[in-house]
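Q: Predict the assembly, please.
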Amino acid sequence: MPYDEVVARFEPVLGLEVHVELSTKSKMWCGCPTDFGGEPNSHVCPVCLGLPGSLPVVNRLAVESAIRIGLSLNCDIATWCRFARKNYFYPDMPKDYQVSQYDEPLCFDGNVAVEVGGLTYQVPIERVHMEEDAGKLTHVGGAGRISGADYSLIDYNRAGVPLMEIVTKTIHGTGAAAPEVASGYMAFLRDMVRALGVSHGRMERGNLRCDVNVSLTPRGSSELGTRSETKNVNSLRAVADAVRYEMMRQGAILAAGGRVKQETRHWNEGGYTTPGRSKEEAQDYRYFPEPDLVPVAPDPAWVDELRATLPEHPALRRARLAADWGFTEREFGDILAIEGALELIADTVAAGTTPAAARKWWLTELARRANEAGVALDELPITPAQVAEVQALLADGAVNDKLARQVIEGVLAGEGSPAEVVASRGLAVVSDTEALDAAVIAAIAADPEAAAKVRDGKVAAAGALIGAVMKNMRGQADAAKVRELILAKLG
Ligand code: ZN
Ligand code: MN
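A: Predicted assembly structure:
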């Protein structure tokens, strides 16, 4: 059904469940590293393999991160809560259960304001709870799905990595803006966990995964429709597209007098959802309090301390930086469009570079190199302080623009700091007059025609001579000084 018609006839109701993978060094219940990748089953121990007799211990930093997330979402923090076993029979969890939280979440009853097209929508938060990630199954043969596979491989490196699950209450009143409210909320979460420093917040890597619940209510009715849940949507655009697709799919079913089936669905790259399994009910998981872990009872004084040290709200910070830096809306928008660019530019400015220069380096030369290398901007092996150093060398005239790019190339190649690259590659600009003089004299002698034009007052002809000198000096001459010398000699 066309989107406009869906919106005219139905009110969408959303529910978003987001899993956030924390960036703690060690896992939720053991000391194993959480590093992404690594040889399969190399980051494991008896605890995260669920071997009999092993006992879990809660990761304090994970609890702290969960509280800080909860506070950022304006949640209440429980003074006492427990973990719960969520039983399910699937080999991605070696224990046959996931340790999670059930009716006693650590954080609850929050809210987030999401702005879309100048309007503010309230997203009420049901809970934030702590749990652990599962291992990774690779199904070999078939279409990569378990059905039809010849065999499956299991890697438990990810099993036990701390996960926070953030669940909204039902979100009403979004109307036609439902897709953008959903993606705007995800963008807020991503920026928030990054500002808190609790997660890398990379959606494409699965650090943030959204389960998108959508149902439709006929306009004028108060009855909730049957919802579908599209699992593991992992980009902002896909979150919006999944909402829109489900609204249109369900609208068509309801308009034809059909009934929407309650089920989980898969999101496909092509921009559509396909049915998954029919949805388990909570009772299927046979939750019960985890007997191997003590309750979590955060000291209110500690919670207050965490509240007092929360970072600036991402939206407020963006507004402040936009005002401080003085870019046009378009220029600032270009920064926001590249993941991680805002932080990098802010850090480069903090290291003493002007906003314009910081923006230029990160959005042109460095964005291009990140693109070529197939990595995110903030994964390039150069720090904002080093970019500031390159810019300082340029501003001092120690290098010119072309040399500065070579300095960056050297830093990215692991040749050391900008100063070390300048020294080892011999990249300093030559402004020694004697050397430049000789090159200028040679250039004039080699191109008498151009020299004659300059003498006749056609200053533009000096360009050819400057180019010849620069070429002769392998780009390392101070171009302004060369020009000065040429004009002086040709009167
Ligand atoms: Zn372990
Ligand atoms: Mn979960």
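The CA atoms of residues 1 and 249 lie 7 Å apart. The chain has a mean pLDDT of 92.
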